[in-house]
Amino acid sequence: MARRRQIYEGKAKILFEGPEPGTLVQYFKDDATAGNGAKSDVIAGKGILNNRISEHIMLCLQEIGIPTHFIRRLNMREQLVKVVEIIPLEVVVRNRVAGSMAKRFDLPEGQRLPRPIVEFYYKNDPLGDPLVSEDHIVAFGWACPQDIEDMVGMAMRINDCLCGLFMGIGIQLVDFKLEFGRRWEGEDMRIILADEISPDNCRLWDRHTQEKLDKDRFRRDMGHVKEAYQEVARRMGILSENSANAVNPAGDNESLDTVQHLFVHNDGVSK
Q1: Range of 239's domain?
Q2: Residue 15 lies inside a defined structural domain of this protein
Q3: Are 178 and 197 spatial neighbours (Cβ–Cβ below 8 Å)?
Q4: Cβ pair 204, 174 in contact under 8 A
Q5: Are residues 66 and 146 in the same domain?
Q6: Beta-carbon contacts of residue 183 (< 8 Å; ≥ 6 apart)
Q7: Distance, C-alpha 189 to centroid of its chain
Q8: Distance separating alpha carbons of residues 218 and 226, to the nearest angstrom
Q9: CB count, 10 Å around CB of 223?
Q10: How many Å apart are CA 78 and CA 102, to the nearest integer?
Q11: What would the pLDDT profile of 57-113 be if each residue is shown by its tens digit?
Q12: Quick check: is 32 in a domain?
């Protein structure tokens, strides 16, 4: 990793120059943040789990025709992805009331919405990622009307797919955040899904107990964050059933090798 040129470091991931033109290596960190970095900690093994969960979901989405930046998983913490020009928006799809929506409208968490709602937030930590309208997006040049239509259309298809995927393993998809980017191939441009999809950016509740299996456990000091992520991975069939302490706290390659047998399809190459 030290031999690669670092392109960007965010709160949960680092991007390095890829081995081929037009590619990047996306490295998943164990850092956990909330409140745009106001609260932070390190949760040993979180990056390993998010790498595997996001890989699984991206492959499921590709199977239904959603274009993504994901190419393949390289190892326990890294993915090879396509270079994209990130659109500075967070696209949030809400199926139930939770989080900032509950506070904004003084509504009880968990209330089912009559239909999924798509919201846009401007990606800017110093400003607190403010909620913006489509008029703001077009006026400030972040995206054109066609880009917005493409993102909303993909977001709704992704929601349909993920609701079914999680329902099948006893999990309720409350809401989730997406990021999109522009991918140029010659003179042609298309909008594709970027970033990751994991318990870091999804609200996932057990369908029967309503237990939270996502980063809200960290945001709200509920504890057992890694165990919740492991539970999601186990239900997806990614993590062995006999892996209560599956993810080694150390982040070096030698230590990672010792836990690979606990994952399903752990050869480092996406199937």
Answers
A1: 6-84+225-262
A2: yes
A3: yes
A4: yes
A5: no
A6: 67, 69, 82, 83, 84, 85, 189, 190, 191, 192
A7: 23
A8: 10
A9: 10
A10: 35
A11: 999 999 999 999 999 999 999 999 999 999 999 999 999 999 999 999 999 999 999
A12: yes
CA distance 8 to 25: 11
Q: Is the four-CA dihedral 97, 99, 105, 107 of positive or negative sign?
A: positive
Q: What is the pTM for the complete model shown?
A: 0.90
The type of residue at 112 is R
Q: How far apart are CA 126 and CA 141, in angstroms?
A: 20
Spatial distance between the Cα atoms of 86 and 191, rounded to a whole number of angstroms: 10
Q: State yes or no: pLDDT of 254 exceeds 80.
A: no
Tally of CB atoms within 10 A around 226: 22
Tell me whether residue 29 is in a domain.
Answer: yes
Q: Which amino acid is at 84?
A: V
Is 118 in contact with 150 (CB distance < 8 Å)? no
* Secondary structure string (H, E, C) spanning the chain: CCCCCEEEECCCEEEEECCCCCEEEEEECCEEEECCCCEEEECCCHHHHHHHHHHHHHHHHHHCCCCECEEEECCCCEEEEECCEECCEEEEEEEECCHHHHHHHCCCCCCEEEEEEEEEEECCHHHCCCEECHHHHHHCCCCCHHHHHHHHHHHHHHHHHHHHHHHCCCEEEEEEEEEEEEEEECCEEEEEEECCCCCCCEEEEECCCCCECCCHHHHCCCCCHHHHHHHHHHHCCCECCCCCCCCCCCCCHHHHHCCHHHECCCCCCCC
